[in-house]
Amino acid sequence: MIKPPYLLFIGDATDKLSIKMAQGAVDWSPKQCIGELSVAGCTVTTSLPQTSIVQAAELGAKSFVLGFANSGGVLDTKWHGVIKQALAQGLDIVSGLHEKLTDIEEIAELADSLGRQLIDIRHPQQSFKTGTGEKRKGKRLLTVGTDCSVGKMYTSLALEKEMQAQQFDADFRATGQCGILIKGEGVAIDCVISDFISGATELLSPDNNTAHWDIIEGQGSLSHPAFSGVSLGLLHGSQPDAIVICHALNRSHMRGLPKSQLPSIADTISLNLQAAKLTNPNAYVAGIAVNTSSVTIEEGQKICLAIANEFDLACADPLRDGVSSIVKSLKAWSPKAATDNKNPVITDMEKSA
């Protein structure tokens, strides 16, 4: 159990995307966050007030959240002292890194002696079976991306909020460390053994009543050379009725891979539909969510309108414009409508053939 409120530690981060765990908590669970703590060299912020560990404890903080991520998910030894200070002030430690806090002897021993929790939310505690591909009751929406870190979690949470406001029976299903921190439960799919990814996703989104929608947070991208495996397992296990394509403007390459080429939205639609239909032949694309933060609001709206016209699909920036247009398309959902709507797309690959 992760106990709020949180003190969010962002260290000496210089990349806004690297603190998405902290930023996600601020954006979606603001009442659970007391402040942020950074050190010299940090050039980004969640916009929360700077708060020391002692101040946070006095204000009632219960958990010290490592709100940053890095390539490989390893905890730099320079942060061991800060974590010990938080433990000494009575705070539990929450980490979304691949390296387990419980595997660091000096930290584990101190936490045990003080009766504090070390919560490695990226590491599932339950066991999973392989996927079956068997049809489950209820409806499911999965967010997928042209790349990593394009807004799949934000889009999923925005869809849940809008759908609930419109009286849908809908729930967000977290599949990453940030989503788990916000939701309070879920499965970090990228830490599940590859044979069991589909099965873990089936367990995360089991049978439900026929009117219920599970909004399943996507991970990675089918086009990303490093992370396509987790994306495919999640796609097959989700059995999505509806897919929402997530895209970020003005990227020159796949995140973390300067020599890799970004796929087009058209190719992303084609690739994901083809794979999705293995476990749900009626899968269709319900809309496109675009992160337009690299341009002005006016430019972003013009781009979204152009994309909507090109693909004949709802398209919007979830943070700037909301997702009501995408939710509107879900209201008309039915197996027959999904079958009739084949989302025909001429891909870049087909154009060059």
In the predicted model, the low-confidence regions spanning at least 5 consecutive residues are 344-353
Overall 3D shape? globular
Task: State the helix count.
Answer: 13
Q: How do the strands of the widest beta sheet line up side by side?
A: 7-8-6-9-10-11
Total strand segments = 11
Radius of gyration: 21 Å
* Helix percentage: 25-40%
- Counting structural domains, the number is 2
CATH superfamily annotation of the largest domain: P-loop containing nucleotide triphosphate hydrolases
Structural class: alpha/beta
Largest sheet: number of strands, sense, barrel closure = 6 strands, parallel
Distance from N terminus to C terminus (CA atoms, Å) equals 54 Å
CATH level 3 topology of the largest domain: Rossmann fold
Question: How do the SSEs run, as a string of H and E?
Answer: EHEHEHEHEEHEHHEHEHEHEHHH
Proportion in β-strands: 15-25%
CATH architecture identity of the largest domain: 3-Layer(aba) Sandwich
- Overall mean confidence score, pLDDT: 92
CATH class of the largest domain: Alpha Beta
Organism: Shewanella psychrophila
Domain D-glutamate N-acetyltransferase-like C-terminal: 130-327
Protein name: EBNA-1 nuclear protein
Pfam families: DUF1611, DUF1611_N
Structure in words:
The chain contains 13 helices and 11 strands. Helices cover 34% and strands 16% of the residues. The relative contact order is 0.11. Strand 1, helix 1 and strand 2 form a beta-alpha-beta unit. The protein is globular, with a radius of gyration of 21 Å. With 353 residues, it is of the alpha/beta class. The strands form 2 sheets. Strands 7-8-6-9-10-11 form a 6-stranded parallel sheet, with helices on both faces. The protein has a 5-stranded parallel sheet with strand order 2-1-3-4-5, sandwiched between helices. The model is unreliable at 344-353 (pLDDT under 50). It has 2 domains: 6-120, NAD(P)-binding Rossmann-like Domain (Rossmann fold), CATH 3.40.50; 139-352, P-loop containing nucleotide triphosphate hydrolases (Rossmann fold), CATH 3.40.50. Helix 1 packs parallel to helix 6 (177-183), helix 3 packs parallel to helix 4 and helix 7 (197-204) packs across helix 8. This is EBNA-1 nuclear protein. Pfam families: DUF1611, DUF1611_N. Residues 130-327 form the D-glutamate N-acetyltransferase-like C-terminal domain.
